[in-house]
Design brief:
Low-confidence stretches: 1-31
Strand content: 5-15%
Number of helices: 12
Number of strands: 7
Number of domains: 2
Radius of gyration: 23 Å
CATH superfamily of the largest domain: Glutaredoxin
CATH class of the largest domain: Alpha Beta
Structural class: alpha+beta
Largest sheet: 5 strands, mixed
Mean pLDDT: 87
Order of helices and strands: HEEHHHHEEHEHHHHHEEH
CATH topology of the largest domain: Glutaredoxin
CATH architecture of the largest domain: 3-Layer(aba) Sandwich
Strand order of the largest sheet: 3-5-4-6-7
Helix content: 55-70%
């Protein structure tokens, strides 16, 4: 994924620390579901088994399984680092230090040019140290990935109950009979949804015909321009230009005024009279609201949200989060 990852690494460290604090009581609560945990109403006790169909329990159980999987991954990564360091008669710190190097001027310049628009006017000299840190972080990430392969690491956790999420004729990519169906609820004005697009494209490139990708509208109420952007995409779709506008809208997240969206549509060389008539059709907006309602019913309360064969992933997650579920489903 071509994003500047230093902030993500910092956030990951904070998240791991949070998990270390929070996961133990969570695990304990699920180990003894009918002993220590209940709600009492008028003298009657309601245990976890009484709440299996309650949506709040389903969400909590899913989060527990996801957190448990993250804990296993973090534990495995620490363990393989320890094993590799022992094999080389080094400390873990010394082992990781070996992944760092001084990049060549050509490497630094290439990264600068790639991310220049995101560096807010910084010169190459000003960005140099940040780029070196980025490249070294990428080196360490690749080293860790290779260790996972070297020590044949795998994970297994119980599966959360799958949600039933319908396609309902929404725009899709990939074969209808693909083994994996991924349904994305997203918002063209959401920066996290924009960020996730590089991950979703990489997944489609990697798994090709094994994935059917479905996009469903979920414009958030506090994104004032989002609703019209989604209506516009659906209307462009009626002229065979859905995915063209889809890509363009996400390239312009944060700048999607009605006038801007119309200009983006005009650039697609479609029949603007038909397009304008379509945007005024109340049925198109009703379809968008139908997607929102369906998403809310299966637990979507923010964007982006993905369902991989009914297994939910929330937020702009790294590609590994998707790969783990996809590989399990392909088996």
């Amino acid at each position: 994924m071509n994003t500047f990852k230093i902030p993500f690494i910092i956030l990951s460290a904070v998240f791991i620390a949070y998990l270390a604090i929070s996961i133990n009581p969570t695990i304990k609560s699920f180990q003894n579901p009918d002993k220590d945990n209940y709600a009492e109403i008028n003298g009657k006790k309601y245990y976890i088994n009484d709440m299996k169909e309650y949506q709040g329990f389903k969400k909590a159980h899913k989060e527990y399984i996801n957190n448990l999987g993250n804990v296993f991954q973090n534990f495995a990564m620490e363990e393989v680092l320890r094993l590799e360091a022992k094999e080389k008669n080094l400390s873990v710190e010394e082992l990781l230090a070996r992944t760092k190097r001084e990049p060549s001027p050509e490497e630094i310049e290439a990264v600068y040019l790639e991310f220049k628009e995101r560096l807010q006017g910084m010169t190459l000299a000003e960005a140099r140290q940040r780029i070196i840190e980025y490249l070294n972080a990428m080196n360490e990430q690749e080293f860790r990935k290779n260790l996972i392969q070297k020590y044949s690491v795998s994970f297994s956790t119980e599966k959360a109950e799958k949600a039933i999420v319908e396609v309902k004729g929404n725009p899709s990519l990939g074969p209808k009979d693909a083994k994996i169906t991924i349904i994305e609820f997203s918002d063209f004005e959401c920066p996290y949804c924009q960020r996730s697009q590089s991950v979703t494209k990489n997944l489609r490139a990697k798994y090709k015909d094994q994935i059917k990708w479905v996009f469903r509208d979920f414009p958030l109420s506090f994104h004032q321009n989002a609703m019209f952007a989604h209506i516009a995409a659906n209307c462009a779709g009626k002229q065979g230009k859905y995915w063209d506008l889809f890509d363009t809208l996400f390239q312009n997240t944060g700048s999607l005024s009605r006038e801007k969206v119309i200009q983006l549509v005009t650039d697609l060389n479609i029949d603007m009279k038909k397009f304008e008539e379509c945007t005024k059709d109340p049925e198109v907006e009703r379809e968008v609201h139908s997607d929102i309602t369906d998403g809310q019913e299966v637990g979507v309360n923010g964007t982006p949200a993905f369902f991989i064969n009914g297994i939910m992933i929330e937020g702009a997650q790294p590609i590994t989060s998707f790969e783990k579920i996809i590989e399990q489903e392909l088996k």
